[in-house]
Amino acid sequence: MNLTRRHHGAAGIIFIGLLPILFSLLTVSINIANKLSTHTRMLEAAEVSGIAVAAESTLDSSNRANYVTSLVDRYMTNNLGAVTAEVTEKSCKTGDTCDGALVTTPFTELKVTASSNHKSLFDNSEYGASQDFSVSGSAKVRKYQSSGPVDVYFVVDQSRVMVEDYFSEGGGRKRIQVADEAIVNTINAIKAFDTSGQSRVGFLGFTEHVAESVGGRATCRPLTYGGSWIYYDKRRLLDYRRGNVPWRMVWNLFDPPEIPRQTQDCNDWPPGTVNEEVRHWNIRINVLYKVRNRTLTSNLDSVANTINNQKITRGEWLQLINGMAGAAQMANSMPKLNSRQLFVIITDGGVSTSNPDGFKQAVQLGFCDKIREQLATKSSFQAGSISTDFLYIQMRNMGTYPNYYGVDDCVGDNNIVTAFTANKIEEAIMSKINTGEGNFLHN
């Protein structure tokens, strides 16, 4: 019995003597685990910030590092001092050899490298280990460009809210000014595409009607003897609403539109007996319906010049059905199309000033499906079928309004974007055009 007690006492003394060593091993293990965990988090931070900076297509090279630094700093916790970050870019075109492989789909590769300093949970300096440590991580993000050319139709709302109202989210500018800037920037980005064929763009502005220039001028006699003759650009208004009957909007989608009004000569004689209704509509059409429409073309600069040089200052009411049907007929009039069709609708977030239910019912009856089906029957420059997508960009936060009136059923939930600045609009369009957004490898 006494011998057993002596053994127990010796074991207890040994255990107590080993406690400091065991505690030291525990703290060292915890510190190692903490370092591994912090390093893993840094790798995650590099990946997340890499994808984010790739998506922010408007950032230039001088701002990318600052943007990544701010993201990593938010992601990492308990870091000491400032995070350091670096972003390098490499572009690989079709036919290049990048990383030992032949490039078939062009891409831009961004490499994000970041590091941060931290303090260990326990001080193990007595064992030769510094309490401070640093971690670093890097990620490569490849942003793939569309591998083939694309036809892009800019379908732009030129109604009163877009054209006449200033809005704070856009820096006190008018929505149409922001939209025009975004479109021109996007056109310039499309020009830089490295594809096997030519991408093309078209432009169609719409309000309550779509205006079309027919060339020449309408003349009206002076209102008084000795007065000056009055001249108006010859235009006509096109209406695709088919009497606001939803089934006709679908059934007659690709039939010629109605022409409710057009500028006319008013050479009544003697002066003072003019047709006042003709004069009224000549003035109205010339003031409210500026024509900037451009048929689908590979001359991208000409479309950008039209947008830059012809500014819209007055607007009418909104009818989305007119814009979409007019753009669909523009596409259908082309002898051949590229294999990818994209309709970019930029609007204040509405559907129709007078009959939003009509648009919703037309969508339910297959309005948007018919556009896709009809364009799929066209001849393509490339092998394979033609696919058609829609992107709906609203420049007002309209909540569930667009979805309630059928926009989501037409374009898809993921293709409804709220954007207030030119950069965000361009980013949304380019992200839709490009494929493989955010494919990444991390080191």
List the helices and strands and how they pair.
Blueprint: H1 2-55, H2 61-75, E1 80-92, E2 97-98, E3 101-102, E4 107-119, E5 132-144, E6 150-157, H3 160-164, E7 166-167, E8 173-174, H4 175-191, E9 200-206, E10 210-220, E11 230-238, H5 246-251, H6 276-288, E12 294-297, H7 300-309, H8 320-332, E13 336-337, E14 340-347, H9 356-364, H10 367-376, E15 379-380, E16 387-394, H11 401-404, H12 407-411, E17 416-418, H13 422-433, E18 439-442
Parallel strand pairs: 6-9, 6-14, 13-15, 14-16, 16-17
Antiparallel strand pairs: 1-4, 2-3, 4-5, 5-18, 7-8, 9-12, 10-11
Q: Which descriptors apply to this entry?
A:
single chain, 443 residues, alpha/beta, 6-stranded mixed beta sheet, 4-stranded antiparallel beta sheet, 13 helices, 18 strands, 26% strand, disordered C terminus
Topology, number of strands = 18
Alpha-carbon distance between the two ends = 64 Å
Shape: elongated
For the CA atoms, what is the radius of gyration?
32 Å
Task: Figure out the total of helices.
Answer: 13
> Per DSSP, what share of the residues sits in E-state strands of 2 or more residues?
25-35%
Mean pLDDT: 84
Query: Strands across the major sheet, in which order?
Result: 12-9-6-14-16-17
Name the structural class.
Answer: alpha/beta
Low-pLDDT stretches are 436-443
Largest beta-sheet characterization: 6 strands, mixed
Helix content: 25-40%
